[in-house]
């Protein structure tokens, strides 16, 4: 702490000592004067030649002089000793107080100024002002009105103003040239009385961090409010999008009852119900996918896959939809060195389908869609780089919507897009999956000119693979009657309606089944049946008493050979990648998600029925 030196107390003490010494000298002088006067009077009465009396007078006079000289010397020595003692004491006190202030200043984030109100003079400044402003404490004892340091100039102007009265607070933003940054400062004044004199204590604090936190909180609140508005808009849109297929399903179901005697009409109603159901399932899957992504539970499953097969599968799914809209759909794969790659093929396929489906929906009939993969642009080390481009000549997007296209629950609202159903989650899911895979996605678009999505991903090649890519033809569909017909299945299903549906589906395709209401009953029924009774087991997962995973483990642990070999298919609404891994870890052979796609079920049954697929 820097402090002005006040020596008035020292002067008062010295004056007191001098007065005391003067009093002593005066008393001694009066005493010796009286003595000399008496001797002189006596000398007048005797003979002036009396040597004894003269000697006495001289002696008394010498003593008087000695007393006077000694008193003066004593006074001088006393004053000198007092000054030395006082100076040392003041220095010790000042050093002690200074150490206290330094300790306080070193351990707090506030600098203190003490200002005399009457003289408007800064009497003391904490040294930690250097840490706060980058300006030494000594700079505040005199005003530098020409300082280019905005922070110092504002603080100095306040502390030298000598503002009396009640407590007051200033808070302002300024640029600190000494520190080279903007900062927020808060100064508080408090009038006090110290030693009988009116003072003002100013406290200075750097509140930049508080303002940064406050701003971040405000930004967070604004973002949360914006997210809530987006979710509210999403729920409103979802309400419409869900009710639309539900209205079709319920409406056509009622029409089926009315036109039950017209098989052709019933089949047409049923086809429309199936289409609406598939759309409703897509909406549900998007919501569940986004929920898992936002909760951080989405993981990637790395396995070997062939790029050509992925491209063929995506083309097989998209071609019927684009053909139905008379759209020109072209597929190009060039420059790919490694045919077999390692990664999450399911998520890659989801990314491609999301972008391609988006292009198909927003491209009018007769338009064109280009799907291209180029593997020759760049590589990171030994990784296979894929640049995926999906370009269309559809309706395009407005510039302001491009900034939010990858936000959750975001959809562009216009007369052209409002008739197109969707959750507004497809692009958000795609962006999150691309990020999760360490890639990038970008989009260019203009209203009326179409859109181009560019995705860059890297995959490690499978060991020992380097070949050009030839896109194979899609696999031939499985004959459902052949796959399911003539077989007897054990179905573990606790929901009566679902059990009725699977039994009816198997019956239509000439298959039969026994139904167990929970996992324990399924284990007991299998244990009690002779070997070869059941061709396969369809196992639900979420069941009372014993769930599907526990039941599968129990069957695999039975002391009979077919318990270890009978195919068990998880037939469940748990449709995520980790659900499939858990089913396989429990001893099941395959996973088919609900709602059941009969073609997928038949393909799975056919695959497990092949000789090479059987085993422990």
Automatic annotation (TrEMBL):
It is found in: Cell membrane. The modification 4-aspartylphosphate is found at residue 540. Its main location: membrane. Residues 237-461 form the Histidine kinase domain. It catalyses: ATP + protein L-histidine = ADP + protein N-phospho-L-histidine. InterPro entries: CheY-like_superfamily, HATPase_C_sf, HATPase_dom, His_kinase_dom, HisK_dim/P_dom, HisK_dim/P_sf, Sig_transdc_His_kin-like_C, Sig_transdc_resp-reg_receiver. GO terms for cellular component: plasma membrane. It is an enzyme of class 2 (transferase). The chain crosses the membrane at residues 12-34, 54-85. Residues 488-609 form the Response regulatory domain. Its EC number is 2.7.13.3. Keywords: Kinase, Membrane, Phosphoprotein, Transferase, Transmembrane, Transmembrane helix, Two-component regulatory system. One of its GO terms (molecular function) is histidine phosphotransfer kinase activity. Pfam families: HATPase_c, HisKA, Response_reg. In the N-terminal section; belongs to the phytochrome family. PANTHER family: OSMOSENSING HISTIDINE PROTEIN KINASE SLN1, TWO-COMPONENT HISTIDINE PROTEIN KINASE. This is Circadian input-output histidine kinase CikA. It comes from Adlercreutzia muris.
